[in-house]
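Per reviewer request, we include the raw input and output of the structure prediction for the construct analysed in the revised manuscript.
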Amino acid sequence: MFDRKKVAAAVSAAFGAGLVAVAPLAALAQQTLERVEITGSSLLRVDAETALPVTIIRAEELVRQGVTTAEQAVGRIAASQSTLGISQGIGATTGGQAEASMRGLGGNKTLVLLNGRRIVNHAYDSGSVDLNSIPLAAIDRIEVLRDGASAIYGTDAIGGVINFITRRDFSGVDVGAEYQKPQQEGGTTKRASLAGGFGSLQQNRFNVMGVVDLRKQDVVEAPQRRFSASGVVPERGQFRTSGTSFPGDVNGFEPSLPNCNPPSSIPNAAGTACRYDFVRDIDIVPENEQLSVLGRGSIQLAPGTLLGIEYLYARNETINKVAPTPVSMIIPRSHPNYPPGAPDNEPGGGVNVVNWRTVPAGKRTNENETVAQRGVIDIQGSFGAGWDYKAGVYKGKNESEDTFTNGYINYDAVQNGILAGTINPFGPQTPAGEAALQSAKILGSVLKAEGDVTSVDARVNKDLAQLAAGPLAMAAGVEWRKEKFNFDLQDIARQAASSGLELAADTQGDRKVYAAFAEFGIPIARGLEATVAGRFDRYSDFGNTFNPKVALRYQPTRQFLVRASANTGFRAPTLYDIYQPQQFTFTANAYNDPVLCPNGTAVPPASAGVVCDQQVQQRFGGPVGYGRSADSLDPEKSKTATLGVVFEPVRSATIGIDLWWINVRDQINQLPEQAIFDNPSKYASRIVRCSQASPAERAAIDVCLNFPTYDPIAYIDTPTENLGKISTSGIDVALGYRFPTGPYGAFAVSLEGTYITKYKYQRERGGAYVDNVGDFVDAGPIFRWSHNLQINWSAGNWGATVANRHKSGYYDQDPSLKVKQYSLVDVSVTWTPVKYLTLAAGVKNLFDTEPPYSNQAVTFQSNYDPRFTDPLGRTFTLRVNAKF
């Protein structure tokens, strides 16, 4: 006999504090519960009735695993393959943001919500939500919809929806403190949180609550970990270095050969040039501080009518350090430190060019501060004969600012110092040279960006009729949204050499969005229900789109459920995509000039430090920046289908299996830099040499100092455009089992996993498909298999959790190398000696597993991939929590 209460207890124990991907059967025992809104649907229903694949992550389980940020929480979702985290701000202008990427489709195709409403995207690119703006201490649970949802939410919900749900109706005081210390040096994390509330909606008809969460993490420098200490790995044949070194070279002549200046400046294998081991100088985890504050007040205006006011403040600060600035500058033959024996181009009417790294000026260091704010006023209640309503207005703002604090230099000021003979690019500085370098440093704010969203929404729900198989339910709603975006570059930023901002430009744009949607729950027969939804969106800058969705749920017995869905989706081009003017940055990878450095050998008179294994300038911008109309960029369109089953093979066990397919066309991006250098003949028009660049561009790109002696690449041209298609599919698996309670307590096991069967994409419209599953292509790999496994134990006032996070291996950026699988085990023990006090201790990465070796070169961190791994190593955790 199928016992609903026992099944509910079993699944709750196995999943309730962890990952719940099989909620439909678990909720069968809850038919008397209040009908609520579930992520992915606007209908009010008990979650047992949903036909959608929803994963639920409980906040208390994240706490037990030592999770302290929303970025780490999203990393516990097996379907997430995020590539942008806080560490990627080192050496790149990311604003320190972290994003969620379901199915590996990118952060701009995963919709992140807070209590069912949008969060303003990060100001730097307006493309995705910064997870650092989520107040983790205020979160009750995370609902993850593993299906497309544009028919409900509109843009971005192609890969899925992640909805962070905060605590509600909280009273009392909850104080927590946590300390995490890696076994190795660096990376210590301290965290404190305070939650308080008073009043009860049921008893007092009001509730006021607030949460404050403060987290600080220390820096981890590259030399503090064995695997990241150097870009030179002889046993791997790796020599990841820069041709711009210190002491510098003149016209390709290396005055410091044969020894160079170790340990940072070392000779290449042939002994013909000095290379700089820039990896030694970077941070692999930035110093970081996060503060979030959430306050909410709720009051019952009348029976069934609830008014709420909510405010969120989140601040994220990071300090990023990379190697000193590499530059090319003119040096006269009369310079007092001009190397003896160096060639002299001046008699022929040319100039002498010194390629050097400003080591005496220190590491390039920038501080980024991002502040996110969000205010919401909402009201919900009922009226008339069975009508429920919900309406609200919210205002969100994201402000980010970059400040240079060391190492960045004013190019013109240093150039003048070299021309005057004051600054020495080849060795120690005189007091005058040191003073000149210090005065040439660019210190202060260089970049400010702001994103602003105002929105009004309203919806109604009603059971329209009672049919033989159940109620015919309806939901309908409207939304109005205004978006504004500003990207403002300060004047001093354009003077900063090798910052990626020298040729950047201001960006701004705004638009309005109008939307209306409807959803119907249609009972067809006993145990069989269909859900039909559709949403119309009108954008003031690119036009209209309509997206439907159909879902079926069939439950012939209590032990077995089948669900399926099909929908279309879209991603609107962001304001940054559309209005970004032409500007420049550096490529992620280093390349050999296909003409001047074939097979890695410079062609005289070209200098290897300029044309071999070097990052290249990259020009990009939106259609408006390239002189085209805003609507010339089409939205991305998608088609998604799912088919799943949930069943109970034996008592206390639940299994969920969901198959999914996603196809995206007209993806919005830039042609990958890798594609251009993989086939320079095909993309010859994308490679602009100094002879082809405008005089203004040549003047601002320092490698063009070598023209006309030789003609290096000025930049590659990669405007934002509609590229080709993406086709991906896979299988989600969720398992849960609760063992019978015995003399040693209660044990429960849960597993959530995702297996990718296909991930192919076109680099351009009509182009060949590239297979990305298990292969590092262009920006990174798509993992074939990833899972999160948990074993929970409880007995009396004790509890313990063993968790395993796993990602399969893949072929690396150099396809001859196979990156090993990555699997970490975390353990934690909790003890509640008295009712209101909980003590916890644990070890993250119990076996001190190092990140597997990778020769990827798309991040500044080397020898491993920081986007998918944790460099901290074995980390001990202590936590105390008191509730009153």
